[in-house]
Protein backbone atom coordinates (compact mmCIF):
# COMPACT_ATOMS: atom_id res chain seq x y z
CA UNK A 1 0.00 0.00 0.00
CA UNK A 2 1.45 3.40 -0.94
CA UNK A 3 2.03 6.06 1.63
CA UNK A 4 2.35 9.61 0.45
CA UNK A 5 3.49 12.61 2.42
CA UNK A 6 0.88 15.30 2.75
CA UNK A 7 2.05 18.90 2.80
CA UNK A 8 1.39 22.51 1.88
CA UNK A 9 2.53 23.64 -1.54
CA UNK A 10 4.45 26.94 -1.69
CA UNK A 11 5.79 27.74 -5.18
CA UNK A 12 8.06 24.84 -6.12
CA UNK A 13 8.37 23.53 -2.55
CA UNK A 14 6.18 21.39 -0.30
CA UNK A 15 6.29 22.06 3.43
CA UNK A 16 5.69 19.13 5.78
CA UNK A 17 4.40 19.93 9.27
CA UNK A 18 5.61 18.27 12.46
CA UNK A 19 3.72 14.96 12.23
CA UNK A 20 4.79 14.35 8.65
CA UNK A 21 8.35 15.33 9.52
CA UNK A 22 8.36 12.69 12.26
CA UNK A 23 7.18 10.13 9.74
CA UNK A 24 9.99 11.17 7.38
CA UNK A 25 12.48 10.49 10.17
CA UNK A 26 10.84 7.17 11.10
CA UNK A 27 11.33 5.81 7.60
CA UNK A 28 14.91 7.16 7.69
CA UNK A 29 14.74 9.63 4.84
CA UNK A 30 17.63 12.09 4.64
CA UNK A 31 18.42 15.24 2.73
CA UNK A 32 18.80 14.35 -0.94
CA UNK A 33 16.39 11.40 -0.82
CA UNK A 34 13.32 11.29 -3.06
CA UNK A 35 9.77 10.93 -1.67
CA UNK A 36 6.26 11.06 -3.12
CA UNK A 37 3.96 13.80 -1.86
CA UNK A 38 0.43 15.09 -2.28
CA UNK A 39 -1.10 18.41 -1.31
CA UNK A 40 -4.78 17.80 -2.05
CA UNK A 41 -4.75 19.73 -5.34
CA UNK A 42 -5.13 16.73 -7.67
CA UNK A 43 -1.43 16.27 -8.48
CA UNK A 44 1.12 13.64 -7.45
CA UNK A 45 4.51 15.18 -6.71
CA UNK A 46 7.89 13.51 -6.87
CA UNK A 47 10.11 15.50 -4.55
CA UNK A 48 13.60 15.69 -3.07
CA UNK A 49 14.11 16.30 0.64
CA UNK A 50 16.06 19.55 1.04
CA UNK A 51 15.58 20.42 4.72
CA UNK A 52 14.68 18.43 7.85
CA UNK A 53 14.09 20.56 10.95
CA UNK A 54 12.61 19.91 14.37
CA UNK A 55 9.17 21.24 13.53
CA UNK A 56 8.96 20.95 9.77
CA UNK A 57 10.74 19.82 6.65
CA UNK A 58 10.96 21.05 3.08
CA UNK A 59 10.62 19.06 -0.13
CA UNK A 60 11.63 20.40 -3.50
CA UNK A 61 9.31 19.46 -6.39
CA UNK A 62 11.07 17.46 -9.11
CA UNK A 63 8.09 16.21 -11.07
CA UNK A 64 4.36 16.90 -11.13
CA UNK A 65 1.75 14.45 -12.48
CA UNK A 66 -1.97 14.94 -12.70
CA UNK A 67 -4.16 12.12 -11.39
CA UNK A 68 -5.37 10.34 -14.52
CA UNK A 69 -8.49 8.93 -12.99
CA UNK A 70 -11.73 10.94 -13.05
CA UNK A 71 -14.39 9.65 -10.70
CA UNK A 72 -17.76 10.05 -12.28
CA UNK A 73 -20.67 10.51 -11.41
CA UNK A 74 -19.79 12.97 -8.68
CA UNK A 75 -20.90 11.82 -5.25
CA UNK A 76 -21.69 14.16 -2.39
CA UNK A 77 -22.23 12.39 0.93
CA UNK A 78 -24.43 14.18 3.50
CA UNK A 79 -24.18 12.60 6.90
CA UNK A 80 -26.00 13.08 10.21
CA UNK A 81 -23.80 13.63 13.27
CA UNK A 82 -23.37 10.28 15.02
CA UNK A 83 -21.01 8.50 17.37
CA UNK A 84 -17.45 9.28 16.42
CA UNK A 85 -16.31 5.71 15.63
CA UNK A 86 -19.11 5.36 13.11
CA UNK A 87 -18.56 8.79 11.56
CA UNK A 88 -14.91 8.01 11.28
CA UNK A 89 -15.60 4.70 9.58
CA UNK A 90 -18.02 6.11 7.01
CA UNK A 91 -15.80 9.05 6.13
CA UNK A 92 -12.76 6.81 5.77
CA UNK A 93 -14.62 4.40 3.49
CA UNK A 94 -16.26 7.25 1.57
CA UNK A 95 -12.84 8.70 0.78
CA UNK A 96 -11.57 5.27 -0.31
CA UNK A 97 -14.65 4.98 -2.50
CA UNK A 98 -13.74 8.43 -3.86
CA UNK A 99 -16.64 10.67 -2.98
CA UNK A 100 -15.99 14.24 -4.13
CA UNK A 101 -17.47 15.93 -1.07
CA UNK A 102 -18.75 15.25 2.43
CA UNK A 103 -21.16 17.39 4.43
CA UNK A 104 -22.22 16.80 8.01
CA UNK A 105 -25.42 18.04 9.68
CA UNK A 106 -26.77 17.96 13.21
CA UNK A 107 -29.96 15.90 13.03
CA UNK A 108 -32.68 16.25 15.66
CA UNK A 109 -31.75 12.80 16.96
CA UNK A 110 -27.98 13.42 16.80
CA UNK A 111 -26.41 12.89 20.19
CA UNK A 112 -23.22 14.62 19.12
CA UNK A 113 -22.49 18.18 18.11
CA UNK A 114 -19.23 18.53 16.22
CA UNK A 115 -18.01 22.10 15.78
CA UNK A 116 -14.52 21.76 14.38
CA UNK A 117 -13.69 20.52 10.91
CA UNK A 118 -10.15 19.59 11.95
CA UNK A 119 -10.75 16.05 13.20
CA UNK A 120 -12.73 15.28 10.06
CA UNK A 121 -10.04 16.68 7.78
CA UNK A 122 -7.42 14.63 9.60
CA UNK A 123 -9.21 11.38 8.72
CA UNK A 124 -9.69 12.51 5.13
CA UNK A 125 -6.01 13.34 4.69
CA UNK A 126 -4.86 10.13 6.40
CA UNK A 127 -7.00 8.09 4.01
CA UNK A 128 -5.76 10.01 0.95
CA UNK A 129 -2.16 9.32 1.99
CA UNK A 130 -2.74 5.63 2.54
CA UNK A 131 -4.77 5.00 -0.58
CA UNK A 132 -2.79 7.21 -2.91
CA UNK A 133 -5.24 9.84 -4.03
CA UNK A 134 -4.15 13.45 -4.59
CA UNK A 135 -7.43 15.37 -4.55
CA UNK A 136 -8.86 16.36 -1.20
CA UNK A 137 -12.66 16.07 -1.01
CA UNK A 138 -14.56 19.15 0.17
CA UNK A 139 -15.77 19.02 3.72
CA UNK A 140 -18.27 21.27 5.48
CA UNK A 141 -21.06 21.47 8.04
CA UNK A 142 -24.53 22.07 6.64
CA UNK A 143 -28.12 22.51 7.70
CA UNK A 144 -30.22 19.48 6.74
CA UNK A 145 -33.10 21.73 5.67
CA UNK A 146 -30.89 23.41 3.07
CA UNK A 147 -30.66 20.13 1.13
CA UNK A 148 -32.29 20.29 -2.28
CA UNK A 149 -34.51 17.49 -3.56
CA UNK A 150 -32.82 17.43 -6.96
CA UNK A 151 -30.32 14.55 -7.41
CA UNK A 152 -30.68 13.57 -3.76
CA UNK A 153 -31.27 10.04 -2.47
CA UNK A 154 -32.29 9.78 1.18
CA UNK A 155 -31.42 6.44 2.79
CA UNK A 156 -34.17 5.32 5.12
CA UNK A 157 -36.26 2.24 5.85
CA UNK A 158 -39.51 3.84 4.68
CA UNK A 159 -38.57 4.07 1.02
CA UNK A 160 -40.84 5.45 -1.69
CA UNK A 161 -38.82 4.43 -4.75
CA UNK A 162 -36.88 1.30 -5.72
CA UNK A 163 -33.22 1.25 -4.67
CA UNK A 164 -31.93 -0.51 -7.78
CA UNK A 165 -33.82 1.78 -10.17
CA UNK A 166 -32.61 4.83 -8.27
CA UNK A 167 -28.95 3.74 -8.37
CA UNK A 168 -29.12 2.92 -12.08
CA UNK A 169 -30.80 6.27 -12.86
CA UNK A 170 -28.01 8.37 -11.36
CA UNK A 171 -26.62 10.73 -14.01
CA UNK A 172 -23.75 13.21 -13.49
CA UNK A 173 -24.15 13.90 -9.84
CA UNK A 174 -25.81 12.46 -6.75
CA UNK A 175 -26.22 13.49 -3.11
CA UNK A 176 -26.44 10.56 -0.72
CA UNK A 177 -28.15 11.67 2.47
CA UNK A 178 -28.02 9.42 5.52
CA UNK A 179 -28.27 9.29 9.26
CA UNK A 180 -27.68 10.10 12.02
CA UNK A 181 -27.15 6.65 13.58
CA UNK A 182 -30.32 7.09 15.65
CA UNK A 183 -32.36 7.88 12.55
CA UNK A 184 -34.38 10.84 11.32
CA UNK A 185 -36.91 12.63 13.53
CA UNK A 186 -40.59 12.92 12.69
CA UNK A 187 -40.08 16.51 11.53
CA UNK A 188 -37.18 15.55 9.32
CA UNK A 189 -39.21 12.76 7.73
CA UNK A 190 -42.02 15.23 7.10
CA UNK A 191 -39.57 17.60 5.43
CA UNK A 192 -38.57 14.79 3.03
CA UNK A 193 -42.18 13.89 2.33
CA UNK A 194 -43.43 17.46 1.84
CA UNK A 195 -40.59 18.23 -0.52
CA UNK A 196 -41.00 14.91 -2.37
CA UNK A 197 -37.46 13.65 -1.85
CA UNK A 198 -36.52 10.28 -3.33
CA UNK A 199 -36.24 7.91 -0.37
CA UNK A 200 -34.56 4.54 -0.87
CA UNK A 201 -33.73 1.54 1.29
CA UNK A 202 -30.84 -0.77 0.49
CA UNK A 203 -32.98 -3.84 1.27
CA UNK A 204 -35.29 -5.49 3.79
CA UNK A 205 -32.30 -6.61 5.80
CA UNK A 206 -31.55 -4.45 8.81
CA UNK A 207 -28.15 -2.78 8.51
CA UNK A 208 -26.35 -0.42 10.76
CA UNK A 209 -26.36 3.16 9.49
CA UNK A 210 -22.71 3.12 8.43
CA UNK A 211 -23.16 -0.18 6.59
CA UNK A 212 -26.08 1.24 4.61
CA UNK A 213 -23.88 4.16 3.56
CA UNK A 214 -20.90 2.01 2.53
CA UNK A 215 -23.20 -0.45 0.77
CA UNK A 216 -24.81 2.36 -1.24
CA UNK A 217 -21.49 3.96 -2.19
CA UNK A 218 -20.19 0.54 -3.26
CA UNK A 219 -23.16 -0.17 -5.50
CA UNK A 220 -22.92 3.24 -7.20
CA UNK A 221 -19.25 2.61 -7.91
CA UNK A 222 -19.99 -0.83 -9.29
CA UNK A 223 -22.98 0.08 -11.46
CA UNK A 224 -21.35 3.20 -12.83
CA UNK A 225 -17.99 1.44 -13.30
CA UNK A 226 -16.59 4.33 -11.36
CA UNK A 227 -13.45 3.06 -9.59
CA UNK B 1 -32.69 -0.90 15.66
CA UNK B 2 -33.81 -4.19 17.24
CA UNK B 3 -31.86 -5.84 19.98
CA UNK B 4 -32.47 -9.51 20.60
CA UNK B 5 -31.29 -11.57 23.52
CA UNK B 6 -28.97 -14.39 22.55
CA UNK B 7 -29.15 -17.60 24.55
CA UNK B 8 -28.90 -21.38 24.59
CA UNK B 9 -32.04 -23.32 23.79
CA UNK B 10 -32.90 -26.19 26.15
CA UNK B 11 -36.28 -27.81 25.39
CA UNK B 12 -38.87 -25.04 25.67
CA UNK B 13 -36.56 -22.69 27.56
CA UNK B 14 -33.77 -20.29 26.59
CA UNK B 15 -30.95 -19.78 29.07
CA UNK B 16 -29.21 -16.40 29.10
CA UNK B 17 -25.63 -16.28 30.41
CA UNK B 18 -24.25 -13.59 32.68
CA UNK B 19 -23.69 -10.81 30.13
CA UNK B 20 -27.16 -11.16 28.65
CA UNK B 21 -28.64 -11.32 32.14
CA UNK B 22 -26.96 -8.00 32.96
CA UNK B 23 -28.46 -6.49 29.82
CA UNK B 24 -31.89 -7.80 30.88
CA UNK B 25 -31.50 -5.96 34.19
CA UNK B 26 -30.22 -2.79 32.49
CA UNK B 27 -33.36 -2.49 30.40
CA UNK B 28 -35.40 -3.20 33.56
CA UNK B 29 -37.09 -6.43 32.51
CA UNK B 30 -38.75 -8.39 35.31
CA UNK B 31 -40.25 -11.83 35.77
CA UNK B 32 -43.38 -12.06 33.64
CA UNK B 33 -42.15 -9.59 30.98
CA UNK B 34 -41.89 -10.58 27.33
CA UNK B 35 -38.62 -10.33 25.35
CA UNK B 36 -37.45 -11.41 21.89
CA UNK B 37 -34.64 -13.93 21.73
CA UNK B 38 -32.49 -15.76 19.20
CA UNK B 39 -30.28 -18.82 19.63
CA UNK B 40 -28.57 -18.99 16.23
CA UNK B 41 -30.81 -21.80 14.92
CA UNK B 42 -32.74 -19.74 12.37
CA UNK B 43 -35.81 -19.01 14.55
CA UNK B 44 -37.04 -15.87 16.28
CA UNK B 45 -38.45 -16.62 19.73
CA UNK B 46 -40.99 -14.62 21.67
CA UNK B 47 -40.36 -15.48 25.31
CA UNK B 48 -41.45 -14.71 28.84
CA UNK B 49 -38.89 -14.08 31.60
CA UNK B 50 -39.36 -16.75 34.28
CA UNK B 51 -36.15 -16.53 36.33
CA UNK B 52 -33.51 -13.82 36.88
CA UNK B 53 -30.49 -14.99 38.87
CA UNK B 54 -27.07 -13.51 39.55
CA UNK B 55 -25.30 -15.55 36.88
CA UNK B 56 -28.05 -16.44 34.45
CA UNK B 57 -31.70 -16.07 33.63
CA UNK B 58 -34.34 -18.27 32.07
CA UNK B 59 -36.83 -17.42 29.35
CA UNK B 60 -39.82 -19.58 28.54
CA UNK B 61 -40.62 -19.88 24.81
CA UNK B 62 -44.11 -18.57 23.96
CA UNK B 63 -43.87 -18.40 20.17
CA UNK B 64 -41.42 -19.60 17.54
CA UNK B 65 -41.11 -18.07 14.05
CA UNK B 66 -38.80 -19.12 11.26
CA UNK B 67 -36.83 -16.38 9.53
CA UNK B 68 -38.63 -15.80 6.25
CA UNK B 69 -35.68 -14.45 4.37
CA UNK B 70 -33.37 -16.84 2.48
CA UNK B 71 -30.07 -15.27 1.46
CA UNK B 72 -29.03 -16.60 -1.88
CA UNK B 73 -26.46 -17.20 -3.43
CA UNK B 74 -24.60 -18.57 -0.43
CA UNK B 75 -21.47 -16.59 0.40
CA UNK B 76 -18.48 -18.06 2.18
CA UNK B 77 -15.89 -15.48 3.18
CA UNK B 78 -12.29 -16.72 3.57
CA UNK B 79 -10.12 -14.16 5.28
CA UNK B 80 -6.37 -13.90 5.99
CA UNK B 81 -5.42 -13.18 9.61
CA UNK B 82 -4.83 -9.42 9.94
CA UNK B 83 -4.83 -6.70 12.56
CA UNK B 84 -7.72 -7.22 14.93
CA UNK B 85 -9.55 -3.93 14.25
CA UNK B 86 -9.70 -4.76 10.55
CA UNK B 87 -10.73 -8.39 11.10
CA UNK B 88 -13.42 -7.20 13.45
CA UNK B 89 -14.73 -4.70 10.94
CA UNK B 90 -14.90 -7.15 8.04
CA UNK B 91 -16.58 -9.86 10.09
CA UNK B 92 -19.12 -7.41 11.49
CA UNK B 93 -19.98 -6.09 8.03
CA UNK B 94 -19.98 -9.61 6.52
CA UNK B 95 -22.57 -10.72 9.09
CA UNK B 96 -24.68 -7.62 8.37
CA UNK B 97 -24.40 -8.44 4.67
CA UNK B 98 -25.51 -11.97 5.60
CA UNK B 99 -22.67 -14.24 4.60
CA UNK B 100 -23.45 -17.85 5.48
CA UNK B 101 -19.94 -18.74 6.67
CA UNK B 102 -16.59 -17.23 7.54
CA UNK B 103 -13.23 -19.00 7.54
CA UNK B 104 -9.94 -17.53 8.67
CA UNK B 105 -6.45 -18.63 7.61
CA UNK B 106 -2.93 -17.70 8.63
CA UNK B 107 -1.31 -16.29 5.50
CA UNK B 108 2.47 -16.19 5.12
CA UNK B 109 2.37 -12.42 5.54
CA UNK B 110 -0.10 -12.52 8.47
CA UNK B 111 1.39 -10.79 11.48
CA UNK B 112 -1.23 -12.28 13.77
CA UNK B 113 -1.95 -15.84 14.78
CA UNK B 114 -5.42 -16.27 16.23
CA UNK B 115 -6.03 -19.59 17.98
CA UNK B 116 -9.37 -19.19 19.69
CA UNK B 117 -12.72 -18.94 17.92
CA UNK B 118 -14.33 -17.25 20.92
CA UNK B 119 -13.49 -13.64 20.14
CA UNK B 120 -14.72 -14.13 16.57
CA UNK B 121 -17.96 -15.74 17.68
CA UNK B 122 -18.54 -12.89 20.11
CA UNK B 123 -18.53 -10.34 17.27
CA UNK B 124 -20.77 -12.54 15.16
CA UNK B 125 -23.35 -12.93 17.92
CA UNK B 126 -23.25 -9.24 18.82
CA UNK B 127 -23.97 -8.33 15.20
CA UNK B 128 -26.81 -10.89 14.92
CA UNK B 129 -28.43 -9.42 18.03
CA UNK B 130 -28.17 -5.84 16.80
CA UNK B 131 -29.30 -6.47 13.26
CA UNK B 132 -32.01 -9.00 14.05
CA UNK B 133 -30.91 -12.16 12.33
CA UNK B 134 -31.54 -15.56 13.93
CA UNK B 135 -29.12 -17.84 12.05
CA UNK B 136 -25.53 -17.97 13.22
CA UNK B 137 -22.98 -18.18 10.37
CA UNK B 138 -20.43 -21.00 10.54
CA UNK B 139 -17.00 -19.98 11.68
CA UNK B 140 -13.75 -21.93 11.50
CA UNK B 141 -9.99 -21.75 10.98
CA UNK B 142 -8.73 -23.22 7.71
CA UNK B 143 -5.54 -23.82 5.77
CA UNK B 144 -5.36 -21.55 2.71
CA UNK B 145 -4.00 -24.42 0.59
CA UNK B 146 -7.14 -26.47 1.23
CA UNK B 147 -9.21 -23.91 -0.72
CA UNK B 148 -10.71 -25.33 -3.90
CA UNK B 149 -10.64 -23.39 -7.16
CA UNK B 150 -14.30 -24.10 -7.88
CA UNK B 151 -16.66 -21.17 -7.14
CA UNK B 152 -13.81 -19.19 -5.58
CA UNK B 153 -12.98 -15.56 -6.32
CA UNK B 154 -9.61 -14.38 -5.02
CA UNK B 155 -9.42 -10.62 -4.43
CA UNK B 156 -6.06 -9.25 -5.47
CA UNK B 157 -4.60 -6.42 -7.54
CA UNK B 158 -3.15 -8.75 -10.20
CA UNK B 159 -6.48 -9.93 -11.56
CA UNK B 160 -6.87 -12.37 -14.45
CA UNK B 161 -10.63 -12.02 -15.00
CA UNK B 162 -13.04 -9.10 -15.07
CA UNK B 163 -14.61 -8.19 -11.71
CA UNK B 164 -18.04 -7.29 -13.09
CA UNK B 165 -18.30 -10.44 -15.22
CA UNK B 166 -17.22 -12.58 -12.28
CA UNK B 167 -19.81 -11.07 -9.93
CA UNK B 168 -22.58 -11.41 -12.48
CA UNK B 169 -21.62 -15.06 -13.19
CA UNK B 170 -22.00 -16.20 -9.57
CA UNK B 171 -24.55 -19.02 -9.37
CA UNK B 172 -25.65 -20.79 -6.18
CA UNK B 173 -22.54 -20.40 -4.12
CA UNK B 174 -19.36 -18.35 -3.98
CA UNK B 175 -16.21 -18.29 -1.85
CA UNK B 176 -14.69 -14.83 -1.51
CA UNK B 177 -11.03 -15.18 -0.58
CA UNK B 178 -9.13 -12.12 0.63
CA UNK B 179 -6.16 -10.92 2.58
CA UNK B 180 -4.35 -10.78 4.89
CA UNK B 181 -4.01 -6.99 5.17
CA UNK B 182 -0.35 -7.22 4.13
CA UNK B 183 -1.25 -9.19 1.01
CA UNK B 184 -0.48 -12.64 -0.35
CA UNK B 185 3.07 -14.02 -0.42
CA UNK B 186 4.86 -15.08 -3.61
CA UNK B 187 4.16 -18.75 -2.80
CA UNK B 188 0.50 -18.08 -2.20
CA UNK B 189 0.21 -16.20 -5.51
CA UNK B 190 1.89 -19.15 -7.26
CA UNK B 191 -0.59 -21.52 -5.66
CA UNK B 192 -3.44 -19.44 -7.15
CA UNK B 193 -1.79 -19.34 -10.57
CA UNK B 194 -0.85 -23.02 -10.72
CA UNK B 195 -4.36 -24.04 -9.72
CA UNK B 196 -5.94 -21.53 -12.11
CA UNK B 197 -8.01 -19.67 -9.52
CA UNK B 198 -10.19 -16.80 -10.70
CA UNK B 199 -8.49 -13.64 -9.48
CA UNK B 200 -10.42 -10.37 -9.51
CA UNK B 201 -9.75 -6.77 -8.52
CA UNK B 202 -12.56 -4.41 -7.52
CA UNK B 203 -11.01 -1.60 -9.61
CA UNK B 204 -7.86 0.38 -10.34
CA UNK B 205 -8.45 2.46 -7.25
CA UNK B 206 -6.34 1.43 -4.27
CA UNK B 207 -8.53 0.27 -1.39
CA UNK B 208 -7.65 -1.03 2.00
CA UNK B 209 -8.09 -4.78 2.34
CA UNK B 210 -11.26 -4.55 4.45
CA UNK B 211 -12.81 -2.04 2.04
CA UNK B 212 -12.24 -4.40 -0.90
CA UNK B 213 -14.02 -7.16 1.03
CA UNK B 214 -17.01 -5.02 2.02
CA UNK B 215 -17.20 -3.55 -1.49
CA UNK B 216 -17.29 -7.02 -3.03
CA UNK B 217 -19.92 -8.35 -0.61
CA UNK B 218 -22.03 -5.25 -1.29
CA UNK B 219 -21.90 -5.69 -5.05
CA UNK B 220 -22.88 -9.38 -4.85
CA UNK B 221 -25.86 -8.48 -2.68
CA UNK B 222 -26.90 -5.75 -5.09
CA UNK B 223 -26.47 -7.68 -8.34
CA UNK B 224 -28.13 -10.82 -6.97
CA UNK B 225 -30.88 -8.80 -5.25
CA UNK B 226 -29.90 -10.76 -2.17
CA UNK B 227 -30.77 -8.58 0.83
UniProtKB/TrEMBL annotation, chains A, B:
Record's signal peptide: none
Biological source species: Geotoga petraea
Pfam families, sorted: Methyltrans_RNA, PUA_4
Domain Ribosomal RNA small subunit methyltransferase E methyltransferase, chain residue ranges per copy: 73-220
Coiled coil feature spans: none
Reaction catalysed by this enzyme: uridine(1498) in 16S rRNA + S-adenosyl-L-methionine = N(3)-methyluridine(1498) in 16S rRNA + S-adenosyl-L-homocysteine + H(+)
InterPro entries, alphabetized: Alpha/beta_knot_MTases, PUA-like_sf, RsmE, RsmE_MTase_dom, RsmE_PUA-like, tRNA_m1G_MTases_N
Transmembrane segments: none
UniProt subcellular location: Cytoplasm
Domain of life per record: Bacteria
Alphabetized GO MF terms: rRNA (uridine-N3-)-methyltransferase activity
Domain Ribosomal RNA small subunit methyltransferase E PUA-like: 16-61
GO CC terms in record: cytoplasm
GO biological process: rRNA base methylation
Its biological purpose: Specifically methylates the N3 position of the uracil ring of uridine 1498 (m3U1498) in 16S rRNA. Acts on the fully assembled 30S ribosomal subunit.
Record's keyword terms, sorted: Cytoplasm, Methyltransferase, rRNA processing, S-adenosyl-L-methionine, Transferase
EC number(s) from the headed UniProt entry: 2.1.1.193
Top EC class for this record: transferase
NCBIfam families xrefs: RsmE family RNA methyltransferase (TIGR00046)
Similarity field: Belongs to the RNA methyltransferase RsmE family.
Stated name of the protein: Ribosomal RNA small subunit methyltransferase E
